[in-house]
Specification:
The protein is mainly alpha-helical. It has helices at residues 2-5, 21-51, 58-75, 78-86, 94-127, 132-135, 138-164, 181-186, 193-227, 231-259, 268-292, 295-312; strands at residues 12-14, 91-92, 173-174. Strands 2-1-3 form a 3-stranded mixed beta sheet. Helix 2 (21-51) runs antiparallel to helix 3, helix 7 (138-164) packs antiparallel against helix 9 (193-227) and helix 10 (231-259) runs antiparallel to helix 11. The chain starts with a helix and ends with a helix.
Length: 315
């Protein structure tokens, strides 16, 4: 009973950046701008992938799912963060913290696997172009997305209860701006070795395994591209993959650094800014990367906006 009563259903204090009051207002404006960009950009990609029939392909089906993930991922964090940055109140309810941790881990883990699925789609498109429509049929696409979501839920349902059940001896101060697993584990006053080992094993499974598959896919893609004699064909193949590679680099680079290091070497200040990057900046940049480097998306956007303007003209 003492183990449960010390933290159960008590509000947590999200310390965040409260030790830098001047920085809080700057961060509020910065995060608000990027959140608006995330909402607009990802919503636009989702709508375009639905309304434009030319985008009814596996690549844009996966891209629409990625945009949906980014939209939910950021929304699970930013409103609470903006509220805490704006005023002196830094608390989050126990159930709010649990919900944030579950959602955050489900969506983050799902995105890791989905990026690997997208790399497989690019591999088939470039290395087996004549069989692309046969291999990447709608049923397989749905199954691959379902696997990504199942991996996300499995990771969350294993790690979140272990993290929240740790005894904190009355400590309610979370040295972060969200209820994140490493920060919550660091609050514990008991031996956390088992939880850390579980987190590391699942981290390897959900980070390094998908990343290895991505690297294998792009290794085979690179070998195929080098065999293309046409400069135009080679450039087209590179453009097809470059956007996804940029997104993978941004996402995996920070995630791996965050979650595959020992807890005793985890720097909270460094962790806060890295978390800001992959939860706020990366989801807002992803639509720009795909839009600026993709003729199909730009064409769909022009047609959509042109059609909207045409509907508004008097007859």
């Amino acid at each position: 009973m003492e183990r449960d009563n010390d933290s159960y259903q008590q509000a947590f204090i999200l310390v965040g950046f409260s030790d830098r009051p001047r920085l809080e207002m700057i961060l509020f404006a910065f995060i608000l701008v990027f959140y608006v960009l995330t909402l607009v950009g990802n919503t636009a990609i989702i709508l375009l992938s639905i309304v434009d029939t030319r985008l009814h392909t596996p690549m844009y089906f996966f891209l629409g799912n990625l945009s949906f993930l980014d939209l939910c991922f950021t929304t699970s964090i930013v409103p609470q963060l903006l509220w805490n940055l704006w005023g002196p109140e830094k608390t989050i309810t126990y159930h709010g913290c649990v919900a944030q941790l579950y959602i955050y881990m489900v969506l983050g883990s799902t995105e890791c696997v989905l990026l690997a699925v997208m790399s497989y789609d690019r591999y088939v498109a470039i290395c087996r172009p004549l069989h692309y429509t046969v291999v990447m049929h709608p049923r397989l696409c749905l199954q691959l997305v379902a696997v990504a979501w199942c991996c996300g839920f499995l990771n969350s349902f294993v790690m979140c209860p272990q993290t929240m059940q740790l005894s904190r001896c009355g400590c309610r101060r979370v040295d972060h701006f969200l209820c994140e697993m490493p920060a919550l584990i660091a609050m514990s006053c008991e031996d956390t070795m088992l939880v850390e080992v579980s987190a590391f094993v699942l981290g390897v499974a959900l980070l390094l395994v998908p990343l290895s598959l991505i690297l294998m896919s792009y290794g085979m893609i690179a070998a195929t591209v080098l065999r293309i004699k046409s400069t135009v064909g080679r450039k087209k193949a590179i453009n097809t993959c470059s956007s996804h590679l940029m997104v993978v680099s941004l996402f995996y680079g920070t995630i791996i650094y965050m979650y595959l290091q020992p807890a005793n070497s985890y720097s909270q200040d460094q962790g806060k800014f890295l978390t800001l990057f992959y939860t706020i900046v990366t989801p807002s940049v992803n639509p720009l990367i795909y839009t600026l480097r993709n003729k199909d998306v730009k064409g769909a956007m022009k047609n959509f906006l042109g059609g909207r303007r045409g509907l508004g003209k008097p007859e």
